[in-house]
Design brief:
The protein is mostly helical. It has one domain (about 1-230). About 75% of the residues lie in helices and about 0% in strands. α2 runs antiparallel to α3 (about 50-85) and α2 (about 20-45) packs parallel to α5. It is elongated, with a radius of gyration of 19 Å. The relative contact order is 0.15.
Length: about 240
């Protein structure tokens, strides 16, 4: 039954331009590097930073901002599809549990974000090879930083989905999300416990894996909380 619900949600978003957004996000991150290296290639060479090591870090500097912004947009779109057609009651009237409906929405968004993360890795590798960067291609580092950032953002995904689903007015989750995007942009100044800092992979231990693990654990907790809240609410 879960599989059918997920397929239904994927069908609903097929003509909404959401897949296009999932492609546009990672392409935009790499496009910024196209401009960066196009204008400053000589400077990178002079500074001895024209290498895969520094290239990956330049890509990762923009990834958290783009990912959190994408989460805000995608979660709002996902909820607005049901709100616009007033179809929540029809969905709940089906012989399915409310927790499975919530899980389907969450899983669909996760699929979109994993797809975007894979594209980011692919686009980054292709452009890095095109630049002819010094040293070996650091495939594992590219994969690590891309997916660590995704895992670290799971609490934000759970929080935004919960707020979007329980809000009749999508202006509320979007406003909350914009504040989160600003906080993500200011991640360097935030304390380590704030979830909007975690996608930057920065912490006092200088270990990105810690942020990924925290994100996965706290993200699961927020998902469960949101699901339980959705189950006990009356659907309008």
């Amino acid at each position: 039954m879960i599989g059918k619900l997920i397929l239904t949600d994927l069908m609903k978003i097929r003509r909404k331009g959401i897949w296009f957004l999932a492609v546009l996000g990672p392409f935009g991150v790499v496009a910024l590097q196209m401009v960066n290296y196009g204008l400053r290639k000589d400077w990178f060479i002079q500074q001895d930073t024209y290498s895969w090591f520094y290239y990956i870090r330049n890509v990762n500097a923009f990834t958290p901002f783009a990912l959190v912004l994408g989460i805000v947009i995608l979660t709002s779109f996902m909820a607005s599809i049901e709100n616009e057609t007033n179809s929540w009651k029809q969905i709940i009237a089906l012989p399915v549990s409310k927790w499975s409906v919530y899980l389907s929405k969450y899983t669909t968004l996760t699929i979109l974000l994993v797809f975007a993360t894979c594209l980011l890795t692919l686009f980054s590798v292709c452009f890095g090879i095109f630049l002819g960067l010094e040293g070996e291609v650091l495939f594992l580092d590219l994969i690590k930083y891309s997916f660590y950032t995704f895992l670290a953002s799971m609490p934000i995904l759970g929080l935004q989905l919960w707020i979007s689903i329980i809000s009749q007015n999508q202006g509320i989750p979007i406003t909350f999300g914009v504040i989160g995007v600003i906080l993500t942009y200011m991640a360097y100044f935030l304390p380590d416990w704030m979830i909007w800092k975690w996608p930057s992979l920065e912490n006092q231990w200088d270990e990105p894996l810690i942020n990924a693990c925290f994100g996965l654990a706290v993200g699961l907790a927020i998902y469960v909380f949101g699901m339980l809240d959705f189950i006990r609410r009356d659907v309008k």
